[in-house]
Structures are given as C-alpha cells and as structure tokens.
Amino acid sequence: MHCTRIDPDTMCPPLECPVHKQFSAPDECCKFCPGVDYCSQGHDCHSNASCLNLETSYACHCNAGFTGNGHQCIDIDECTSEGGLEGHHCRSNTKCLNTRGGYECECLPGHRRVDRFNCAEIDECAAGTHECHVHALCVNTLGSYHCTCKEGYSGDGVHCLRTCPAPCQNGGSCNEDGECACRTGYTGQDCSLDLNECEAGIGHCDLSTQCVNMPGWYYCACRQGYVPALTHLSPTLCIDVDECVIGNHTCHETADCINVEGGFRCQCPTNSTDCRLSCVINGQEVENGGVIPRGECEECRCVDGVVHCTPISCDCALSPAVHCCPHCYPTATSCVHQELPHVIFRSGERWIYQCQTCECLMGEIDCWEVECPPIWCESAVLSTSDCCPRCPSSCPANTTCPLLYQPHVWAPSCASCNCRVPFCDLLVSNNGFCVHRMGSYHAAMVGIVLLQHQPRHLQLILLLLAVATVVRIGR
Questions:
Q1: Which residues pair with 220 in a beta bridge?
Q2: Where is the EGF-like domain (predicted)?
Q3: 310 or 27: whose pLDDT is higher?
Q4: Do 216 and 194 form a contact (C-beta atoms < 8 A)?
Q5: Which of 27, 35, 163, 401 has its CA 20 to 30 A from that of 130?
Q6: Residue 278's pLDDT is what?
Q7: The pTM is what?
Q8: pLDDT band at residue 374, thresholds of 50, 70 and 90?
Q9: What separation, in Å, do the N-terminal and C-terminal C-alpha atoms of the chain show?
C-alpha cells in the first residue's frame, strides 16, 4: 500500500465561500463550504433514481418501487411477494397488478372497490344490474350471477320464450297464455291439423268455382261447365263453357241445345212434332227418364236430355255397400291419424299429412303427393310450413276487395298491359291477349272488338280464333 499526503493548499479544489465560512469535516483533508448544491452541478444518477446532496458531494438513491445502486435501478415486482417494503398489500377479492414503480389492487369480476387494497362482492340481482329476462329468475353467485327461465318458459335465461304443453307445428307460436297461436289455415292444440276452409264454409269462391282445400290454405278451381279466363287479374276467374257451340252436350239432334250458366238444357223447337228429349251418350240414346249406368255409388238418369247424377241413398238399416256408405260401418272402416291417436277418420274422409293428401279407405290409409294449383303470379312464395308455393294475396286481410267479375259483367279494360305466367293482361294496343309459349309470349289478334265486350255465346269462339293467329311480342 502506498499513501500520498495531500497538501490542502495545493491539492484541494478552490472554495467559493469566504475563509471564515469554510469548515473541516472529520477524516476529510479538504475543507468545504456548507449548503452547496452538488446535484445541480451535474450527476450520473439513473432516471429512476434521486440525487441527494451531501456535505462534500452527492449520492444516488433508487426511487420507491425500484432497486439498485442508484446508478442502475430496476423495477420491483411487488406482486411476487406479499407484505413488507417490497411486497404488495392487496386484500380480499382483489388481484395484484404490477405497474412501473408500483402496483395496483384490481377488483375481481363482480366486485366493487372499497379502498385501495380491498373490494366487496356486487349483488347484481339485488342491484338490478343483471340481464336476466323478465320471465327469468336471477341467482347471485360469487362474483357473478346466472339466469334461469321461470316455469312455463324456456331459453338461456337472458332470452325466455313461452312454452306450450306440446310443440307448436306448422309455423305456430306459443302465446303468453301457454297456447299455440296457429298460422292462418291450421288448427288444433298444437296446430298440427289443417283447417279445411272448404268444409268450414270460409273459402271465398264465387258460383263459377269450387273450393279446393290445401295444407294451410285453399284455392278456387273452375266448376264443371266453366273454364279459366285468360287474365291475371283474378286467378279464380272462370267463364262459362258454351257446350252447345263446341258440341259437348247430350241433347238429341231433334232438340235445341240452350246454353245456361255452368251447363245447358235441351228444348224442343216450337211446333215440333218429332222432338225427342232423350240423352245421347257416346252415340247411344237413353230415353228421357231412363237410367244411365255409371259408378256403383251414384244413380244417373236422363232428365229432358241432360244427365243428372246423385249419390245413392245410404240407409244404414238396409246394410248398403260398405264402399258406398262407409259411415254405416264406423268400427270396421275408420282410420287413426298417423301421429294423433285421438283423431279418427271415417272411410272416405281425407286429410293432409306431411304434404300428402291421405284418404281413409275401408280402414286403410292411402296417401299421395299434394297436387299444387297453377301459379298465376311472377313471384310465388313457399313458406316453411307450406307444401305448395302460393301467390301473395292481392287483397290483404280486413280490406275491401274490388269485385272483378260477375256473370255477364266485365270490369273496364286495363290501362296498361304486362304479360304474366301463366295468365296475361288484355292487350289494348292491338286488341289481343297473351299466350304463353315455351319461354316467350305471343299476342293473339282478336280483331277490332275486344273479347270482353262480346256476348257470352261468342266468347269461346273468339278465344279459339284468337289462338290461330299470333304475333310475337317478346318476353
């Protein structure tokens, strides 16, 4: 060890204070001036350290939350230990979260802050801050809650729907009373039964059409003696067929055929002496009043040249044929619905099941695919619970619908024309009408007089003549 003596007069730094204010410190060779700010004169302390002035120099100390020699300071992770100067002091229902130079006590989910170090549980059910449905029960849990739908409802508790004793079918929904609200066209406790609008008398078909029941709805088909009119204005619009003109009648050649709505009648010419009001069927003459052999379950007679058929009289006391009078044998000929054992059908009765028409035939069920009616609109809709596409109603519920056609009365001709499948508008521009032909439309010339203004007995003739001459008008 080598030591060198320090000469205070030559080796100590000069002092700025007067000599009488200079002091000597124990174990220090050089004197000093008290109150000098050495930190402001420059230091090498770390950015996370503080500079402290001493009597003759300065010192570096790491800030709270950091450790080191003052020249190098690193962050202390208080969350790794609990208590003391370098540990955390988080208490119940909290989680320690380390920060630069310190830490925070974060509340656990479902808790609220009490002070810096403590949190208390939140009762969302009591506070009304839950998201349970109005028909659900809120149950508070540690740090959270859960929802349970009340009896009579189903769901996840946040969304609850009324439940019915049996699932609602065919698009039905369960209402607040716990009963199935069926779509129009369906009925029953679970909406599983088709409402037969035709039998219920709520099918709105005019006299020229007959009601045809479909699963969930119905349509109107032309009766015998009528044919569909070539117009989209009403898909159920039917016009009378003149059987006398087209030769589809049974009058004897000596009698005159008189067309009537939906049929015809035979009449003897005035002062005729050899007129016969018999019926001519396939070239065979049947006397007036004579029996005409037809089906076993109906009786047909010639009445003044016209064939009239009526079902046979079913007198169960006389034990009639089973297939003609099945209601006389309910035990042997009844059928049970495929899924509803309490629903019984008699022989001859029909119902709709899974888009099939089913019929009870002598105790056995025969089903076939539902025959869909023709589509008269451009954008038919097939709903989830429907078997056939249907056209949107042009007459909404609870509204007054214009009557487009009455016997012998036509509505005014249209102002604008647009062809539609399979029916078409009347073409006012050339007095024609559209005929659908393999992906395109043609306009058939009718002459200078519109078809709709012609007498009834000429309408069919004009229709046939109109199809003979066609002019392409494009799609």
A1: 211
A2: 35-74, 75-120, 121-161, 162-192, 194-232, 240-276
A3: 310
A4: yes
A5: 163
A6: 95
A7: 0.47
A8: confident
A9: 117
| Residue whose pair of structure tokens reads 């396939």 in the numeric block | 282
Amino acid of residue 151: E
pLDDT digits (tens, 9 = 90+) for 1-23: 556 666 666 677 777 788 877 77
Q: How many CB atoms lie within 10 A of CB 261?
A: 14
Residue of 405, 424, 421 whose CA lies nearest to 466:
424
Contacts of 170 (CB under 8 A, 6+ apart): 182, 183, 186, 191, 192, 216, 385
Amino acid letter for position 68: G
Tokens in use for 2? 């080598």
Burial (0-12, 13-18, 19+ Cβ within 10 Å), 318: exposed
Return the pLDDT at 135: 92
What count of other Cβ atoms lies within 10 Å of the Cβ of residue 142? 10
Separation in Å, CA 106 to CA 43, 119, 235: 38, 8, 72
Confidence of residue 472 (pLDDT cuts 50, 70, 90): very low
